[in-house]
Amino acid sequence: MIRLSVNALLNFHPKAILAAIVLVMTLLGGVAWGALSLVDYVSTLDRAEHGTRQAAAFLEGHADAVLDGAAAALARVADRLEEGGIASLPDHALGEALAASRFGALSILDAGGRTVFGPSIHPDGGTSGLFQGADGALELLHGQVDGLDSILMVRRILGREGILEGVVLLALPSSTLHTVLDVFGDGRHSVAGLFRLDGTRLAGIGGAVVGPLPTLEPGEESGESDWTVGGDGVVIGLKRMRDFPAVAAVALPRNVVLEPWSSRLQHGFMMVGVSVVALFGLAALGWASLRREAAARDALRDANARLEQRVEERTADLRSLNQKLVRALAEKERANQAKARFLSAANHDLRQPFQALRLFHHLLMERLKETRERSIAEKMGEALDSGEKLLHALLEVATLDAGVVRPNIAEVPVATVLDSAAAEFRGLAADKKLDLRVRGCPAMVRTDATLLTRMLGDLLRNAIAYTPAGGVVVGCRRRGQWLRIEVWDSGSGIAAEHLDAIFEDFVQLGNPERDRRRGLGLGLPKVRRKAALLGHAVEVRSRPGRGSVFSIMVPLAASESRTDAAAPAPAGRAEDTDTRLILVVEDDPVQSAGMQLLLESWGHDVLVAADGPAALATLRAAPRCPDVILSDFRLPGPLTGAETVTRAAEQEGRPIPGIILTGDTAPERIREAVAVGCRLLHKPVTPDVLRDALNALGTERQPVRHSQSSAA
């Protein structure tokens, strides 16, 4: 089997293929146009049939309203006459006859055909047809009254023995239906009116006969798109009246119905002709272009060969560059991970001695009485404070990176945040003789008040540090649904090439000697991390020698209020004077001894263990379950401090409050410590912070074990 590609076919028979394409497109277009025309033809007839059925229903409803009252009046007259006979007309039925006359001409004939009441009525076919039939059912006929076309309602009067005694006729002028029939007198409808069941017209326009009607139940509708009236094709709609032996019919000539379709068909012929001519014109152009294409194909083949060679050369160069870039990115990632591990390990290892120093410094200050000796101890405390500031800054960065900070988003008055942030730095600005001004703003925003206050504090600290003279201004600007909080300074400014670098960790411009009095280079990185956590945008604009503007974009609250939210009063420290049994789990003997001395100085009983298994063994030998477990996070052996608290609760059969002390600021370590539900404190911990944590755990006492055997 020979398989030819498209290119091969074009090379061998381009003109034949072009001719085949033109022929196929012409045939497909013709078939599609014919199918659409046929669908349009059927749809046109269906719409016309539906319209005539609706019109017939409308005509039937109006005719029923006209005939209903007259039929009821005629029935009352006939019923009276059947009770007493024709002779009782003056005594029994005269009133009903006169009342029925308001609907039309009422006439009463006796069995001989003589008129005994009312005017002469001339039905089509003569009066002899009125007496044919032996029942008293209502019939409808067409007739004349005083030369006017009328609908005759006929009711035969049968005596008590069933003998025909006469006929009652009520003639309704055809003009009573003209209100509706005039609607169909627009020249488009060939038939519109009421017809007897045999097809004879009672009233209306058009032919007197519509031919044999189909058998319809009372209230039933019907329609035909292929009906003949007077030899002409029509589209007819029919509806049988519910209470009368008549049918409402409305018919439209087929040539009128199909006139729009014929017009569309003619336009379609014209469009098809134009399309065919255009198609053959395009084919001629394509025929001519095939010759030019053959020449261009050869030139293109040569150009493609040269281009492919150049692409291969460039691809090889790019592949080499990509490999170098991948290696560089991998090296950068490894360097970042190594830096993070180094900072975490250094942070943890530095916190351990700081924690012991803080505990012993507190104990030492309580025992020193001489002023000179206390002065030396206070200097040592200042040195500890300086080191702890660095450790706390590293902790805050690590906590933000760990993702354990959950912002408390609420509607916050901006004025409260600005005043709180500025109040902390007014003294620092005054020391440098700087003018610190806050421009009030009554807006309400959706944010975390604490985190936003810290962000503004870092920006103010940075602005004051780098502003030698002049002042710092804090204000707000509305930007649509956002509020732009800005911190302006008149400092030395920042060069454009350094605007991105200042948000990186430990980057300080103009401080190559790393003077710690000028900060650590972590303020702006912390602002960037908190802004990302809150979904706020941080921007900076600066002109060297003129100053800088740092701004935070905060979303406005849905409903703003100028009334500051009442801040809850700070709760006082609850002093715990009860003696507790506290289990201290710490592998560093220096810190363990310092912690034991501190807790015992507060009046607590202390148990000490070096690791998790030793702590569990100490619990089994203890006289009662401890009130609190105070444990380091990293412990030698198989258990961490968090796992030790969990295992102790399982061993005792009840939860035991726990406080986890850790110097590890790695994000994954922080997440693990928070997940166990214990209170988390980062080293170095001051005695006041530790006392507050113990007081916050409550004062519930654990039961005393009576004996080891009873416990078992």
Automatic annotation (TrEMBL):
<feature type="domain" description="Response regulatory">
    <location>
        <begin position="581"/>
        <end position="698"/>
    </location>
</feature>
<feature type="domain" description="Histidine kinase">
    <location>
        <begin position="345"/>
        <end position="558"/>
    </location>
</feature>
<protein>
    <recommendedName>
        <fullName>histidine kinase</fullName>
        <ecNumber>2.7.13.3</ecNumber>
    </recommendedName>
</protein>
<dbReference type="InterPro" id="IPR003594">
    <property type="entry name" value="HATPase_dom"/>
</dbReference>
<feature type="transmembrane region" description="Helical">
    <location>
        <begin position="269"/>
        <end position="290"/>
    </location>
</feature>
<feature type="transmembrane region" description="Helical">
    <location>
        <begin position="16"/>
        <end position="39"/>
    </location>
</feature>
<keyword id="KW-0418">Kinase</keyword>
<dbReference type="InterPro" id="IPR003661">
    <property type="entry name" value="HisK_dim/P_dom"/>
</dbReference>
<dbReference type="InterPro" id="IPR011006">
    <property type="entry name" value="CheY-like_superfamily"/>
</dbReference>
<dbReference type="GO" id="GO:0005524">
    <property type="term" value="F:ATP binding"/>
</dbReference>
<dbReference type="InterPro" id="IPR036890">
    <property type="entry name" value="HATPase_C_sf"/>
</dbReference>
<dbReference type="InterPro" id="IPR004358">
    <property type="entry name" value="Sig_transdc_His_kin-like_C"/>
</dbReference>
<dbReference type="Pfam" id="PF00072">
    <property type="entry name" value="Response_reg"/>
</dbReference>
<keyword id="KW-0597">Phosphoprotein</keyword>
<feature type="modified residue" description="4-aspartylphosphate">
    <location>
        <position position="632"/>
    </location>
</feature>
<keyword id="KW-0472">Membrane</keyword>
<dbReference type="Pfam" id="PF00512">
    <property type="entry name" value="HisKA"/>
</dbReference>
<keyword id="KW-0547">Nucleotide-binding</keyword>
<keyword id="KW-0812">Transmembrane</keyword>
<dbReference type="InterPro" id="IPR036097">
    <property type="entry name" value="HisK_dim/P_sf"/>
</dbReference>
<dbReference type="Pfam" id="PF02518">
    <property type="entry name" value="HATPase_c"/>
</dbReference>
<keyword id="KW-0175">Coiled coil</keyword>
<keyword id="KW-0067">ATP-binding</keyword>
<keyword id="KW-1133">Transmembrane helix</keyword>
<dbReference type="InterPro" id="IPR005467">
    <property type="entry name" value="His_kinase_dom"/>
</dbReference>
<keyword id="KW-0808">Transferase</keyword>
<feature type="coiled-coil region">
    <location>
        <begin position="290"/>
        <end position="338"/>
    </location>
</feature>
<dbReference type="InterPro" id="IPR001789">
    <property type="entry name" value="Sig_transdc_resp-reg_receiver"/>
</dbReference>
